[in-house]
Amino acid sequence: MQYPLPIAKLIDNFMRLPGIGEKTATRLAFYTLDMQDKDVEDFSQALIEAKKQIHSCSICGNITDTDPCEICSNPNRDQTIMMVVEQAKDVMAFEQMGEYNGLYHVLHGVLSPMDGIGPEEINIKNLIIRLQKSDEIREVILALNSTPEGESTAMYLGKLIKPSGIKVSRLASGLAVGSDIEYANSITLKRAVQGRISL
Questions:
Q1: What is the DSSP letter of 50?
Q2: pLDDT tens for residues 118-127?
Q3: Are 111 and 119 spatial neighbours (Cβ–Cβ below 8 Å)?
Q4: Phi and psi angles of residue 143, each rounded to the nearest 5 degrees, phi first
């Protein structure tokens, strides 16, 4: 027996979301059917408003409903340091930490030649323009994921930025808190040794 077409379409749309398989999509579809009409309307309206009102900041590329974004328009932020991240959600992770008060630049991806993603497909050009226009930025922190694509993107950006005299750094990496050395791979151990600190 097949589901009625409206339910089948709802399941299919939920399955388009990342990490949502058929079982979860079916559960969400039936949960939606059990919701009050007002809740469904509020939910659908929130989706529509987010899609219409959220856009990329013209300066840093972060998601925002104002332009420039709240971070770029804040004169109390440290204007001498910029953190480059892959996605807007990475900005939120660092902001929730509360230890960083500099600027950001969101790439909206990483270099991946096998997927056809080159420097033109991500927000690299605007990064270089920002650095050329700024007299204040002294350091760029490359806060990219430790994936092969993240590593190659960091190396590429480092080669582009270093000739300008701006310091380029990477986030420290190595052993996670609570991990066992015997289970760590060689790259993780190498970075843990290279990034060691004095006590």
A1: H
A2: 999 999 999 9
A3: yes
A4: -100, 65
Which of 86, 95, 63, 82 lies closest to 151, judged by CA?
86
Nearby residues of 65 by Cβ (< 8 Å), 6 or more positions away:
53, 54, 55
Tokens at 119, concatenated: 């420097």
Beta-carbon count within 10 A of 140 CB: 25
- Report which DSSP code applies to 172: -
pLDDT in tens, 43-79: 999 999 999 999 999 999 999 999 999 999 999 999 9
The residues facing 170 across adjacent strands are 142
CB 100 within 8 A of CB 94: yes
Q: How do 103-106 and 81-85 pair as beta strands?
A: parallel
The contacts found for 51-58 with CB under 8 angstroms, 24 or more apart, are 56/106, 56/108
Check: pTM over 0.90? Answer yes or no: no
In whole angstroms, give the CA distance from residue 82 to residue 98: 15
The candidate with the shortest Cα–Cα distance to 43, out of 21, 10, 73, 16, is 10
Q: What is the predicted pLDDT for the residue at 175?
A: 67
